[in-house]
Structures are given as C-alpha cells and as structure tokens.
Amino acid sequence: MSAEPDGPEGRLRRFATIWSRAVFPVTSTSSTRPEFEALLLPLARLLSEALRARSFDAGAGRAVGAALVRAHCTDPEALSRTLDCVDAYLVLYCGEDGDREDLRARSARLQHAMAAGFAQALRERTLAEQEAIAQAALEAQGVVAQALHATEARFRAVFEGAAIGIGIADLEGNVLQVNGALRRMFGLSEQALRGRKVKEWVHPDDAPQTWRLYQELVSGEREHYHLEKAFYRPDGTVLWTNLTVSLLRDADGDPQYQLALMEDTTERRLLNLRLRYEATHDALTGLPNRTFFFERLEKALNAGEGQRFGLCYLDLDGFKTVNDSLGHAAGDRMLVEVADRLQACATASGEMVARLGGDEFVALTTGPDTERTVDELAARIMNALLAPISVDGRELTVRGSIGIVEGPAGERSAAEVLRSADITMYRAKSAGGNRFELADPEADARAITRHGLTTALPTALDRGEFFIEYQPLVHLGDGSVRGAEALVRWLHPQHGVLSPDRFIPLAEHTGLIVPLGRWVLEQSVRQARAWRERHGGAEALGPLRINVNLSPCQLTHPGLVQDTVDILERTGVEPNALCLEVTESALIGADDDLLKPLRRLAEMGVDIALDDFGTGYSNLANLRRLPVSILKLDRSFTQSMQQFPADPVDLKIVEGIVSLAHSLDLAVTVEGVETGAQAEQLRILGCDTAQGWYYARPGPPERLHDLALVDATG
C-alpha cells in the first residue's frame, strides 16, 4: 500500500523534489531531472532518519556529501544550494512533531557534516586528478624525442582543461607556467603571475610547518606535501586553498621543477565557518550555546595545575508567567535583553556567557583567582538585572536565581560541575529567588539522593519494596490496645529502610502518593481483618481499629470514597474499624468541595482523625464544621510532661484542648508518649488514647497482635 500524499513518505518526496529542482541546474550529470530526483530520494531519506534518530550520527551527513560528488555535483554552487535547501526544508518536511529547537540544531550539524563529506570526496577526486597530472607532467619532461609532441599535447590538454589551479616553478621559486583555473583564482594575468616568486606568497595564517616543508621539497629531501594555505588576492581579499606541491625530477632523477596544484576552498571555508557559528551559537540571543559552552568548560577544567574556574548558573524567576501572560514574542525580547546585559557583565579575560536553553544562562570565569572573581561576576549579574525591561510598553521586573560552583581545575568533569551548579541554583530559587548561593557538596549529595529516590519510586511499588509497620493505640483508662496506626516504610535496595518523611513528599510531588496510599489502605484493612480472625473474631481482642494517614493529594483525588468503599467490601471489614488521619494543615481554609468526601466517609461510619492538631494555627471554631471524630494532639504540647513537674502552661493548654474536644463529642489521642509519668499525667487530664515508644515502637503486625492478646487474656 502506498503512503498517503500527506504522510511521512509524501513529505519526504516533496523535500527530494525541492532539492532536485534547486541543484539540478548546476550539475554536470547526463541524467534528466526526474532521474536526478530519484537519485536524491534515498539521500533525503538518510538525512530524515539522521534528523530523527535517538542519538545523532554525523556519518549520515558525510555520506550524503560524498554521494553528491559521485553524482557529479562538484560545482561549489551545488553544495551551497544543497545546504540552503536542507537548512530551509529538512526540519519542515521531515521533523514531524519533534522538539523544533533540537531539530534545528541537528539540522545545522548535519549540514556541517555534509560539507565535510563533500570536501573530503572532492579532495580525494582532486588528488586522483593531481596524480594523473603529475604523471602527465613527468611523461612530458621525460619521454623520448620522437613522442615529445604527442605527450606535450596530452599534458597541455590536461593542464589547461583541469578544474583546479596548476602552476609550475623552478627550484628557485620562479613561476614558469600557470593554467587558466589558477589565473581565475587570483584574478591576475599569466604575465603577472609568471613574474612572481613563490616565497612572496607568505600569509599570516600559514601553518608553522608550511615553509619548512617547502624548503625540504626544493632541496630534494621530500617528494610532495599537502596542506591548507591562504593567499592574498590583488584586491586584498583572501583566497583559501587545498595546496599540494610535488617535486618533478629529470630523467636522471635530479630535482628540476615544482608542481603546485590548488583547489579553491574559500566559499566552502566561509560556509563551514557559518555552519560552525550556527551550530555553536544560540539563534535568538547570539550567545554561545550549550555545545560551545561545554567545549570551553572542558578546556577550563583541563587547564592544568594552579588554574581554577568559577561558574554562575542563572535561571530567571517567574519567566513562565511572562510567556503565559504576554506571549512568547515578549518572552523572547526579554531573553534578548537579558543576554545583552549578561554579555556586558563578562568582558574580562577568561570570562564568557552562554545560553543553555529556555531562560537558563551560564557565566564562566577562569584563572588563578576565581574564588574572588566569581563572586564579583555574580554580583555584577544580579546588579545588571535590577533595571526593569520595557516590552510592548510594559516595564517588566527581572529577577534571577544563581548557583555558583568554584574550584580547582582537574578535579571534576564538566557534567558534574554543571549538575552541581543546577542543584545550587534550585536551592537559591527555593529560598525565595533573586539571590545567589554557593555550591555545598553535602547539599548536592542530598539532592542527588532525592532525585534518585524520585526516579526509583514508580517501580518500587511494582517490585514490592514497600512494607507497613504498626504502632499500637492504647486506651489511657485501662491500658488496653484499641488499634494501631499503619506506617509505611520503603526497603530501598541501596539505602535500606527509609522512613515516610524521606519519600512521602516525593510521592506527593510525582503523584505516586495516590496508588501508594491506596495500597497502604488495602494492606492495612486486610491486616485488621487478619487480627480479628486469628483468634476467633472480635470477641477475643475487642474492636481493633486501624488508623491510615491520608495526604492532601489523596483528599483531592476523585476516587477516594469509591476506593475506600471497594476495599472495605472486598475485605469484609466494617467501616467503624477504619480511621483516616488527615493533618490539620491540609484542612485549613478547606471549602465544602474538599470536605465533601470526608463527610461521605464519616456518614458511612469511618472515623476521621485530625492529625497534628495544634500546629496549623486554625480557628478552633472551625472544628464544628469539620467531619472529624478524633483529635490527635501534636507531641509538641506534651514533651514537657516527660519531666516532673510538668510545665504548668502546657498542662493548661492540654487541659483546655481536651475539655473543648469532649464538649464537641471528639475523642483525644496523644502522640509521642515516652514515659510512664507522661502517660499518667495525660490520663489525669482526660486524654482518651495514646501512642508512643513507652508502649511500643512501630513493628510487624504479629507484635501488635501479641500485645492485644495479652491485654484481652489478662
């Protein structure tokens, strides 16, 4: 079945058609244009695949460049038109739905590789021609007299018809003969060129070995040499060439002439420089991009003993708001203005500024004293951002957060330095922004560990790495076990057992808290059922209740009520055996929509406990509108009761809370009970239940069952 006209294959064919129409007029092929288009189609497919590949391969671009030479597209105009076509249409027709900025960067690198492949193939073809020319020249000088005329005719045909410049000089450097191609390169007549000496063509950009190789050749020590060389034209412009010089010997083997073959590479060199610039500079701001910056950073990190580096990693605060409210065009103008200001901050030797992407910029300083200069650079950047930026008549405030990394060269890789700077920048942002922070190895390690835990969370539940421990809830009146709080733990393969405070915030941030909370709820309810069934039902142990914590994310999840109902029905556990604990801070200012699921659960018979009560600064009058039946008093109110005598202020506060709770028909549970004196004081104050290390630490379900059984049997 053929591809749809608007499908990927159809777009690829349109790209090949545009390419063939642009290049065909400047080719030397005997094919028709449709035949030439068919030749370009597989090359277009190769470019398309390289553009969208998971990892970039420059070999595809080089292969396409070489294929153009084999197809007789050797005119420099053919390469220029090809690269213009690829630059304008490759991403448009073959990029599909990928990241446009990344695709444009790949396209630029493909163009660079194509130019390199074209140059290499053309050079190899030129060298083959050069060998034929050199052979013809030798034959012209060394054949017997009766064949001299025919040989010279063949040499003259090759000499004048060659597309590359050819010159012959004696060993003193006097130019004897030049062909038409060489005359056109320099824009000089044959007489003007023949009046020159080779050593007059010195150029400041000559490679150090240029004239040493020349001297070795004319002295007979070398047969040929090849290098890139620049020449001045009469109008002052520069001619760049691939230059090959060979030594011609007479019939006796003595050096007699030097033969120079020149390929004009000026346009190709300018094109390569342009492509290099585009591949290493940001199109919007003109600053060096991530690629260029990494090259400079790696060079700075390998600078040797005694050298140091300083890096400022800048991220604009609130830039997304500008894009969302004023549009991307306004955001782009802000980025350009910020780039100009940053460029003005890094003008000293060893300093540079780059844009990594989006609203992220970096400034680098190098030298032996970067401990001081990097702080000064960061201060200049912060000062440069003080003035508002005018966009469409609006004065926009610019703020930024900077992470600074400074240290000696040779100790860390570029990736490690940038990661540390990124982590430090986010630390500055989380501290309120509009500031800079210095890198802290310990903070870096914590952030890296936190990131590792975040990425491992999604599969940890599937791998069964979570387990639950239970801490008894004890009645203060008779000391009986009335239930337990379920506390989830993570048995991490590398870090061992992790407590909830290490991973619950990460689970809330990633959204994994919903499936994890559902799993904890079901496992805990099943355990409550197992406790009751183990020794003949509820009569043996009393009405054991299981307490399960709910996070704020779970409260807003639309499936909370239905999930709870389904779990209770599947396990055959009555709703009054379940208590859901919600932190006071999660319910501050809660509207009716947020409270509705809790009310429905409470109406079913599920107890709702207000956890960490006393830490949320809520209005006590709000207790009347919350569907709670239990207050869990935060341990901060009862810590002083571990000592005798207890703080009288804390006693009054707890006494008042208990009195208020009981007047509202709410039970009071106390957390963090660690001594007998504390437990007794809380009993006297009227608290109903308690939990803490005084009774038992969180542990496996079997231990709780044993404690409850002891209470039931006396």
TrEMBL record:
Top-level taxon: Bacteria
Domain PAS residues, every copy: 151-221
Residue intervals of the PAC domain: 225-277
Domain GGDEF residues, every copy: 307-441
PROSITE patterns registered for this protein in UniProt: EAL, GGDEF, PAC, PAS
Positions of the EAL domain: 450-712
InterPro entries: Biofilm_reg_signaling, EAL_dom, EAL_sf, GGDEF_dom, Nucleotide_cyclase, PAC, PAS, PAS-assoc_C
Pfam families, alphabetized: EAL, GGDEF, PAS_4
Name listed for the protein in its UniProt record: Diguanylate cyclase (GGDEF)-like protein/PAS domain S-box-containing protein
Organism of this sequence: Streptomyces griseoloalbus
